[in-house]
Design brief:
The protein is about 50% helix and about 15% strand. Helix 6 runs antiparallel to helix 14, helix 14 (about 325-350) packs across helix 16 and helix 15 (about 355-375) packs antiparallel against helix 16. The protein is an alpha/beta fold and about 425 residues long. It folds into 3 domains: about 5-170, 2-Layer Sandwich (Beta Polymerase, domain 2); about 175-320, Rossmann fold; about 350-415. The chain contains 17 helices and 10 strands. The strands form 2 sheets. A 6-stranded parallel beta sheet has the order 7-6-5-8-9-10. Strands 2-3-1-4 form a 4-stranded antiparallel beta sheet, with helices on both faces. Strand 2 (about 45-55) and strand 3 form a beta hairpin. It is elongated, with a radius of gyration of 28 Å.
Length: about 425
């Protein structure tokens, strides 16, 4: 087996590292993902691809055909895929908007993402589920294979340990909880505010749950297809409206919380005209990527809009507090990474010991065959089969022990790992 660790790479961008416009441009609508990701995999020339797009990050995890390929080449091909040089509306971006990882660093990054140590909101509760969904989507659609499956499975184990053994899992936070911080301040000034919840995705019940814990304000659940949100209205004691009726003025709102999968903005000066009615100000939380509110609304004093980029400013306090407990989490990550690396390296160098296994088993079979004809001839055929079975099993395990021991030495050694792996790799081939 050839070295797989050095073939793993990741191209990453997230809010804080890049602007929301770049995030929007790199977010592929769910209805188009199968076709577009298959085309992207082909353009990148990779054997495996997992695409993760959340409200605050986009990640491309791949397995390259050659370990020497530069991750910057992958980034450039991704940009070529998403952007047309002649497009005057494309967002501006710089090399520093992207983080590039290869080999062990890529594996470490994926472990940290799954454990929510790389999140804007350190310890956010949703990221692990989002990573698992992204991997399952890739597997179900033949985009990824065994290499990334082993890597991500190891990352899930590390993330679970971080959540159970550190304070990061005791008080889970999310972008929804950050939005709730500002929402509580608004409701303190407007205790009778009417809140409209736009969309039928997972963010809607999360926000409704947060609101209902402390407030009894009127909630209006809004969606293009009304039957998708009627159960929310029943559960959280609210009303349900179609998006068209809402825009036409069937109800007015003081606060809008929107998180849809619409590829284009829903709200602008025109569509908000009837909603805001004669109110002096409208407060809005745009939790969607791409955004549900047009950017120019931020320049209008009638609207206070908190999009994900603006909410990022509220996360800085969270980062300072949560990094106090991150040291233990990082130690867990490093321990689990070491276990993952050892398994991968052992699997890579095991073929070096195949001949020893084959020869040892052959010698055992020959020796036992003679014993079964002589001193052990009194044993039943069943007993003889049992002895032969366990002899083969013990020999196989014993012959591969040097591979595991060598893998442990490689991981623990101060010598550059990539050099050692390249030497071993040539011998394996």
């Amino acid at each position: 087996m050839r070295d797989t660790i050095s073939k793993i790479a990741c191209v990453s961008t997230k809010l804080g590292k890049s602007g929301i416009e770049l995030m929007e441009a790199l977010t592929i609508p769910e209805s188009e993902r199968i076709e577009k990701l298959a085309a992207l995999k082909s353009k990148l020339g990779v054997s495996e691809l997992i695409y993760l797009a959340t409200c605050n990050r986009v990640e491309f995890a791949v397995v390259r055909e050659k370990s020497g390929d530069d991750a910057a080449v992958l980034r450039n091909r991704i940009l070529d895929f998403f952007f047309d040089d002649g497009d005057s509306n494309r967002p501006g971006f710089e090399p520093e908007n992207f983080r590039l990882y290869s080999g062990r660093d890529a594996a470490r990054h994926i472990f940290r993402v799954a454990a929510s140590l790389d999140s804007i909101v350190i310890g956010e509760a949703q990221i692990l589920g989002q990573v698992k969904s992204a991997q399952k989507f890739a597997q179900d659609n033949n985009l990824s294979g065994l290499v990334l499956e082993r890597l991500f499975s190891a990352a899930y184990k590390a993330a679970k340990q971080v959540r159970t053994e550190t304070e990061l899992g005791q008080k889970p936070v999310s972008m929804a909880s950050l939005a709730a911080l500002r929402l509580d301040e608004i409701l303190a000034e407007l205790p009778n505010a009417v809140i409209a919840m736009i969309g039928s995705g997972s963010m809607t019940p999360k926000m409704a749950e947060i609101i209902r814990k402390n407030h009894d304000n009127q909630l209006i659940f809004v969606n293009r297809t009304i039957n998708k949100i009627e159960h929310f209205a029943d559960k959280y004691n609210g009303l349900s409206l179609s998006l068209d009726d809402f825009i036409d003025g069937a109800a007015v709102a003081d606060i809008i919380i929107s998180s849809t999968s619409s590829p284009e903005p829903i709200f602008n000066d025109i569509t908000l005209k009837n909603i805001i009615a004669n109110k002096v100000k409208l407060f809005a939380f745009d939790l969607a990527i791409p955004r549900d509110f047009t950017p120019e609304l931020n320049r209008n004093g009638k609207y206070e809009i908190w999009d994900l980029e603006k909410l990022n400013t509220l996360s800085q306090k969270n980062r300072r507090e949560r990094f106090k407990t991150a040291d233990l989490a990082n130690r867990i990550i490093e321990e689990q990474l070491k276990i993952y690396f050892q398994k991968e390296i052992a699997q890579m160098i095991s073929p070096l010991f195949d001949s020893a296994v084959t020869e040892s088993i052959s010698m055992a079979e020959e020796g036992l065959a003679n014993l079964f004809k002589g001193k052990l001839s009194h044993l039943s055929p069943s007993d003889q089969e049992t002895i032969l079975y366990w002899s083969k099993k013990v020999l196989s395990r014993a012959c591969y022990l040097p591979a595991r021991n060598l893998a442990e030495q490689i991981v623990n050694s101060d010598i550059d790992q990539d050099i050692r792996l390249s030497i071993i790799n040539r011998n394996v081939r």
